[in-house]
Amino acid sequence: MLSLEEMNNINEGTMMETLGIEYLDVREGYVYARMFVKKELSQPYGMLHGGASMAFAESVGGAGSACYVDMKDYVIRGMQLSANHVKAAAVGSYVYAVATIIHKGRQTHVWNIDVKNEDGELVSACRLTNFVFKKANKSL
Predict the structure, then answer these.
(1) Domain enclosing residue 107, as ranges
(2) Closest CA to 16 of 76, 81, 66, 62
(3) Cα–Cα distance for residue pair 60/57, rounded to 1 Å
(4) Domain count of the fold of the chain
(5) pLDDT of residue 138
(6) Which of 54, 70, 77, 97 is a good FRET partner for 85, with 20 to 30 A between their CA atoms?
(7) So what's the pLDDT on residue 112?
(8) Of 5, 58, 118, 121, which residue is the catalytic one?
(9) Is residue 7 over pLDDT 90?
(10) Residue 79 forms part of a structural domain
(11) What are the strands, taking DSSP E only, across 21-136?
(12) Of the candidates 33, 36, 47, which has an alpha carbon nearest to the alpha carbon of residue 126?
């Protein structure tokens, strides 16, 4: 399993770095992360854009699946993501993702990811299915 430091360092130069995702706790079947709601992640009314919330959720669930496999030999791909946005999160605040695995199969992982505001209130309820497959070419 990757360490917290490795999880955060792997974000360098990626969308996860652009979003400002910071992993706070990683255990088997569980990932906890936060993201600062900066203006660039908002919709015109100054609230977190639903697409940014979904990108956050997919990133955290994907990181969780990566903890289960040897990334030298396997690839993780998000294959389905759904979300219900139930509360707004304002620019200038943090949102937190709590990802828990609900199915760990040989080729698929299903994660529940709740994105919450600083008060612990649900912002987005997300469900992610990841496809896990062996690399055809180890140089990838």
Answers:
(1) 4-134
(2) 62
(3) 5
(4) 1
(5) 57
(6) 77
(7) 98
(8) 58
(9) no
(10) yes
(11) 22-27, 30-36, 74-85, 94-104, 108-116, 122-134
(12) 33
121 is catalytic: no
Hey, is 93 helix, strand or coil? coil
pLDDT digits (tens, 9 = 90+) for 65-118: 998 888 889 999 999 999 999 999 999 999 999 999 999 999 999 999 999 999
The answer to whether residue 10 sits within a structural domain is yes
Amino acid at the residue 55: A
In a domain, 67, yes or no: yes
Q: Would 105 be classed as within a structural domain?
A: yes
- Of 129, 122, 127, the C-alpha closest to 48 is 122
Residue 9 pLDDT > 80: yes
Residue type, 111: W
CATH number of the domain within which 126 lies? 3.10.129.10
> How buried is residue 112: exposed, middle or buried, by Cβ count under 10 Å (0-12/13-18/19+)?
middle
Whether the CB-CB separation of 130 and 65 falls below 8 Å is answered with yes
DSSP state of 20: T
